[in-house]
């Protein structure tokens, strides 16, 4: 068990949705599990006029996100947690003198003996990240003289390669790279971390994990919801920035990377950066045309209920060309992956919520047996969510005369480890930052390498030149044309819609 120093967490943008929905519940779980250090306080800061008690009511006692947990935890434990929370009103602007904030931090440090160790969490709109870092530096709140200082930065990290580079430069003026923790909540998911273990703690997968045995790799991230109340934000972002540049390229890097020499944060991140740098950047228009597909959901009915189209959503421009679906085919230019296509798609308003990685192996060179069904290949399905687990599809003999072969499943579900408590992503990531472990946080060069790959696609889509924007009915698996991306061996693997209801459907088959 790693050591967690006494410390303070200062959250900027503490009146916002993320604080209430993810950060405080994550901290509450850590409190209940006994993972918070003995001396620990949270200081929320934003422009809203709130007292300490207002803040506690808002994010704990009256929080819809903690209602059930509070029932289970009981009053005493809840109160003990709430008493660790404080609030400081920043006045009208984040771009202000942080003298008062500093005074409050000093006061709380002395009162709770938090030893001067501080994490600053930037949960504000991204336009304020650098401003807050600068004002912290101006108030000398970034100095490491009396305890360490860390800075957690929320997504999105930049809007393009250029803005990401500028943000890195801007933050590096006030904090050193080892102090900066760029969050990507997919890295906090247990199943995502398990990818490393699956690959590098077993000897059965790694020998096959290359161009000699793998035919193609497919990654799907599907959400059944639309843009909900985030239309304003989403319309300026789109699926490629919102999910692909960060979360999905993180998954890609874990699939593609070479074995690190150890489990040290830098060793692992060095390999991930190399992996991202080896993605073949699409430069010419024909390649971009042939290998990228974007689409928007249009109004439809799902299970008898009318569902709005993307352009009718609140906060979305009625003529918007922002994609809610993106499918990209690409290659990885290195020894291991030469010539192997990767197909990655992400979308909202799909039939179900699912994220999975499918490794499609090559078929046996020589077919000896008769096989039912069209697929003779082995597949390794890594289910990130829901029904987290791993499945291998392989051929077995159909009982009876002769040698008929059918595909069977061998599966593992995380839920079978029932007694093991699985931390929520934010909970895990917060604890790691508290312990100074940056393994599951993105490094500056990693983020920039991901943008290097994504930028030309965004620019091409923005150019509008011959760029297709397909529509798909909310509740279907995207535009049919997306199947055209996949070459000689079929189509996207669309996991069944009613995972639980369909008796013939095995959850990850
Ligand atoms: N919510 C989520 O699920 C996720 C959020 N994020 C990221 O986390 C950060 C915070 O997100 P979230 O909490 O949802 O955002 P919200 O808009 O709910 O909250 C941000 C807070 O920042 C303050 N703020 C300062 N200036 C502005 C401004 N010009 N417009 C709006 N708010 C302002 C507001 O507090 P006040 O007015 O009191 O100062 C507000 O409470 C963002 O960068 C977002 O991209 C990332 C992943 C998921
Ligand atoms: O970062 C984001 O992620 C969520 C999906 O997260 P998940 O953990 O539920 O898979 C997505 O809905 C949101 O648009 C995006 O900003």
From TrEMBL:
Pathway it works in: Carbohydrate degradation; pentose phosphate pathway; D-ribulose 5-phosphate from D-glucose 6-phosphate (oxidative stage): step 1/3
Residue positions binding substrate: 185, 189, 223, 242, 348, 353
Active site residues according to the UniProt entry: 247 (proton acceptor)
Name of protein: Glucose-6-phosphate 1-dehydrogenase
Gene: zwf
GO molecular function, one term: glucose-6-phosphate dehydrogenase activity
Reactions catalysed according to its record: D-glucose 6-phosphate + NADP(+) = 6-phospho-D-glucono-1,5-lactone + NADPH + H(+)
Organism: Flagellimonas marina
Family according to the record: Belongs to the glucose-6-phosphate dehydrogenase family.
Residues the record lists as binding NADP(+): 47, 155
Superkingdom field: Bacteria
């Amino acid at each position: 068990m790693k050591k967690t120093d006494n410390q303070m967490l200062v959250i900027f943008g503490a009146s916002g949705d993320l604080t209430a929905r993810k950060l405080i519940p994550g901290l509450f779980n850590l409190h209940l599990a006994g993972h918070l250090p003995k001396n620990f306080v949270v200081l929320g800061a934003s422009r809203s006029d709130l007292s300490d008690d207002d803040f506690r009511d808002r994010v704990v006692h009256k929080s819809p996100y903690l209602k059930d947990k509070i029932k289970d935890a009981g009053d005493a434990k809840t109160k003990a947690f709430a008493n660790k929370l404080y609030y400081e009103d920043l006045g009208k602007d984040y771009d202000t003198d942080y003298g008062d904030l500093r005074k409050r931090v000093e006061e709380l440090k002395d009162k709770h003996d938090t030893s001067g160790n501080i994490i600053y969490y930037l949960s504000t709109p991204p336009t304020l990240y650098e401003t807050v870092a600068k004002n912290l530096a101006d108030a000398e709140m970034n100095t490491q003289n009396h305890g360490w200082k860390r800075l957690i930065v929320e997504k999105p990290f930049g809007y393009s390669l250029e803005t990401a580079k500028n943000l890195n430069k801007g933050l590096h003026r006030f904090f050193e790279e080892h102090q900066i923790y760029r969050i990507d909540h997919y890295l906090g998911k247990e199943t995502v971390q398990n990818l490393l273990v699956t690959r590098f703690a077993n000897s059965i997968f790694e020998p096959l994990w290359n161009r000699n045995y793998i035919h193609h790799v497919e990654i799907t991230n599907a959400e059944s919801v639309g843009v909900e109340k985030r239309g304003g934000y989403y319309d300026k972002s789109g699926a490629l920035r919102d999910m692909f540049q960060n979360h999905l390229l993180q998954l890609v890097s874990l699939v593609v990377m070479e074995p690190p020499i150890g489990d040290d944060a830098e060793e692992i991140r060095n390999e991930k950066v190399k992996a991202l740098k080896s993605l073949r950047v699409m430069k010419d228009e024909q390649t971009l045309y042939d290998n990228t597909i974007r689409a928007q959901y249009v109004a439809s009915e799902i299970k008898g209920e009318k569902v709005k189209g993307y352009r009718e959503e609140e906060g979305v421009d009625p003529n918007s060309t922002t994609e809610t679906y993106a499918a990209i085919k690409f290659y990885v230019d290195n020894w291991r992956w030469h010539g192997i296509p990767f197909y990655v798609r992400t979308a909202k308003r799909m039939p179900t919520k699912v994220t999975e990685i499918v490794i499609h192996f090559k078929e046996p060179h020589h077919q000896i047996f008769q096989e039912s069904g069209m697929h003779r290949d082995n597949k390794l399905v890594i289910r990130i969510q829901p029904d987290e687990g791993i499945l291998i599809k392989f051929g077995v003999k159909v009982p009876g005369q002769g040698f008929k072969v059918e595909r069977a499943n061998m599966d593992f579900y995380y839920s079978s480890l029932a007694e093991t408590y699985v931390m929520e992503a934010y909970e895990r990531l917060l604890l790691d930052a508290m312990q100074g472990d940056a393994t599951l946080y993105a490094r500056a060069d990693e983020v920039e390498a991901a943008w290097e790959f994504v930028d030309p696609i965004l620019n091409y889509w923005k150019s509008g030149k011959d760029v297709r924007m397909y529509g798909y009915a909310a509740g279907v698996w995207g535009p049919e044309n997306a199947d055209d991306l996949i070459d000689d061996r079929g189509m996207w693997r669309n996991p069944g819609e009613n995972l639980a209801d369909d008796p013939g459907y095995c959850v990850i088959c």
